[in-house]
Amino acid sequence: MAPLPPQALAHTITQLGASFIKLAQVLATRNDFFESQYLNALKTLHDDLPPMSAQEYRRVMSRAFPILPFERFEPTPIASASIGQVHEAWLEDGTKVAVKLRREGIEKRVRADIRIVSFFNRIFRPLFSHTTRHSVESVISEFAVMIVQECSMHQERANLEKFSRLYANAGVIFPIPYGQLSCDDALVMSFESGWRFDDRESIVNSGIDIIPLIDKLVRFYTDQMLVQGYFHADPHPGNLLVTPDGQLVLLDFGMVKRVSNPTRIAIIELLRAANEQDYEAYVSASKRLGTVAYDAPVAELAEFTQRMFEIFANDALDSSSMQELAFAVLEQTRNLPFKLPQEAIYILRVSAIIEGLGTTYIENFNGIKDILPILQRNIPKALGMKDSIIESIIDEIKHIPQDVQALRETLRRASRGELMVELSPLQLESISQNLQNALRPIVLALMLALGAMGAWMGGVHELAYGLLGAAMMRLWYR
């Protein structure tokens, strides 16, 4: 069967609706996975989708602005995405602003998509292994929460305001929201202009050196995910602009996520192990992150990790060869218990998008070879270390009284026999799954034995013997 032509693929995804467009936007950054004609077609999923109809536009405008607060408002959108569309407007004092209008009925359509996906997941759930089932349900659960939140302009404005405060000194430009003019159907903000991050021709022709910008983008996301634990989860090229003077602009704050402290520490340990090529430590960190089942075999996974690292760190391979070799290794390890925990979904999505942006400018760009050194330089900061050794020592000295108090409390509890062991959710999940696996044959054997008793009491002795024999066999071969 021949693949869909590029425009037909983009059209099909558009027809499926907002939920599927969001999933496909990651693919639109993968210069190493798709040919240019497919990439050009998929790029339209970022901000070049069909706008609302005239009737829908009028309904949204009448709800959002009963009295129009603009001197001029352009009815034709300059960008149209899955959740909303953006218009140019001018305030009465002449200030140019961007107005993002929420699509009419988008929340109902998104909730319908979620119900459909959840329905099919329930139907096919028995066909999945425990690990696969866990990953599928995590994706659906996390995606359902985030995309519903993204449908609210109130939520996006709150995200933008908090993000702007937290990263005021990041050297990245964010729009300024006009809260008094905004509502749940519309977000009014300052107008920010620039070239899309993947507009290589315009950026290169302007004389801007893109390599420092890629470095800056990676460092900024390192700070978001590893230091602050609060990150913009949708950095596709339509949301990243480069100004003529070489500044980064970040747009669209509908998807903003918080990383829990245990997850953040697990990622830091994962990066440190990757940089030191300590593959067993890498597997251990992956277990704590939840991307590998807690009881997975360490040696086998360490070998798999080493082989993957060797492929992606090989400068002699082009992107297609890397991809072919990586898929061959993955095929051999398809039965290993990899998982996709809820917290890791958007972290992996962001990583894939940023790596995809890098392939636009750097041949064979990949996370291990190009991003890892940048991340490694930021690990001390992520661990809370200060800029100088003296500052770090002073900071540690300040914590000595609390550490001594904590040690004293631990010794006191130990002497009284009051120490408690707390299991992580991943350990509890592993114990639960092992118990289920151990009890399943016993429960089945018990049911067969009860059936045998019923058959005996009913006078069907041959069936009773058969059921009893099946029960004994099930116990023997459990």
Annotation keywords:
60% helix, alpha+beta, 3-stranded antiparallel β-sheet, 5-stranded antiparallel β-sheet, 478 residues, 19 helices, single chain, globular
Provide an overview of this structure.
The protein has 478 residues and is of the alpha+beta class. Among the domains are: 1-50, no CATH class; 194-387, no CATH class; 425-476. Helix content is 60%, strand content 8%. It contains 19 helices and 10 strands. A hairpin with a 4-residue loop joins strand 3 (84-91) and strand 4. Helix 6 packs antiparallel against helix 7 and helix 10 crosses helix 16. The longest helix has 33 residues, at 425-457. The radius of gyration is 27 Å and the shape is globular.
Topology:
Elements: H1 6-16, H2 18-25, H3 36-42, H4 44-47, H5 54-64, E1 70-73, E2 79-80, E3 84-91, E4 96-102, H6 106-124, H7 130-150, H8 153-166, E5 186-190, E6 195-196, H9 200-205, H10 210-228, E7 230-232, E8 240-242, E9 248-250, E10 256-258, H11 261-276, H12 279-289, H13 298-312, H14 319-332, H15 345-361, H16 367-382, H17 389-416, H18 425-457, H19 461-476
Antiparallel strand pairs: 1-3, 2-3, 3-4, 4-5, 6-8, 7-10, 8-9
Helix pairs in contact: 1-3, 6-7, 10-15, 10-16, 11-12, 11-16, 12-13, 13-14, 18-19
